Sequence to fold (473 residues):
Amino acid sequence: MKILLTGTNGYIGMRLLPLLLNAGHEVICCVRDKNRLSLDNETRNKVIIVEIDFLKTPDFSILPTNINIAYYLIHSMSSSTTDFDEKEKTSALNFIKYIEKTTIHQVIYLSGIVNEKNLSKHLWSRKNVEETLYKGNYNLTVLRSGIIVGSGSSSFEIIRDLCEKLPVMITPKWVNTKTQPIAIRDVLLFMTGVLDNKKCYNQSFDISGPDIVTYKQLLYLYANVRKIKLFIFTIPIMTPKLSSYWLYFVTSTSYKLALNLVDSMKIPVIANDKRLQEILNITPMNYVKSLELAFIKIEQNQVVSSWKDSMVSGRFKSNIQKYITVPKRGCFKDQKTAIVKDLEKTVEKIWTIGGENGWYYGNWIWKIRGYIDKFFGGVGLRRGRTHLDEISSGDALDFWRVLVADKGNKRLLLFAEMKVPGEAWLEFEIDKDNILHQTATFRPKGIWGRIYWYAMMPFHYFIFDGMIRKITL
Fold:
């Protein structure tokens, strides 16, 4: 079958794509920017890639018409704290307009559990999108999920950050709210199980794991799995805004996502039915098992996707194409070169830079810069990197975004997502004579941009000089 996969470069989309290809389906990957679709060349040759922004007026010439099934995985919660619900509704309406021009007979939508009378803005928006999608001329299948636990998921990474970094926590009262988590593996089983399954047409199903627990219990269970001593004290005086700042500074989440998450964490998220488990004969795993499997993937360096690689985890508001060409005029540059003694070893160091490996020189300075960035509302260093030894265009890399990762031509280009009064690039390129060119480019914005560059020059001299020496050793 020919399947349209929207949100391909999201956490779920990247997990679902290989399953669909392995099942022999022809997949059309729908993204806003194909330059940040983190797929290897072999996978790219197996799929069709189309660029569609569902917030814009539809261009019906873009999408093939002979589509059988579509997965709707478009969410805007992380991009805004005010109008994400309007954006999600607009996206759903434009999606229907696109689909009306095709031969599609089923749409599968991954939503959230919405069984409470009083819903958060985030959950209300998911329910509103569901109602909107039901108006289309096709068979809709809705999967309403609890929080998803798996290596790289936002829920897992937030719990991980909290427990690993804060052995003693002063928490808001929403940690006593009940929730019903589900493992990413089970989510994918449900999503593939309903594919072209007539028993699932025009129905909405709750999907969840077997455990009904509070957020505090989620943290304690994580600590038990990791053999960490954890002490949690709950106080009633932490407002939603204070709670959002708490999540933002301690974890790798963005402030916008933290604010929307806190708003939703006040609402119990508990499944009402197990119909789909019976139809598909699926027995979901418990929370502890999902944690253990997540760490197996992490330890084996087999994390398929991470929410941190999403564009909304950084400062980009549009596609990254316009940043790929590094400007030459009106810029400050720090250019350094060094002879590469061991080509294979040097390329490996470049491709494993950042994250747990650090930046090879002055890591304590990089960490201070990360703390400063976080304090002023930036992303800081907490995003790390998804893979230890692999990197692709569009990936997050600490407080950088990967623009070009061309291992064949030995070139890595990064764009800064930290808070700076201007725009900054960092490039590594090895030429045919085995000379490494390391170039930091900064295009200042106004007088403060120039003051910033000159203030940082002493640090740049030592950091960049030491870094290129360490890389080429």
Q: What stands out?
A: The first helix runs from residue 11 to 22. Confidence is low (pLDDT under 50) at residues 77-81. The longest strand covers residues 435-444.
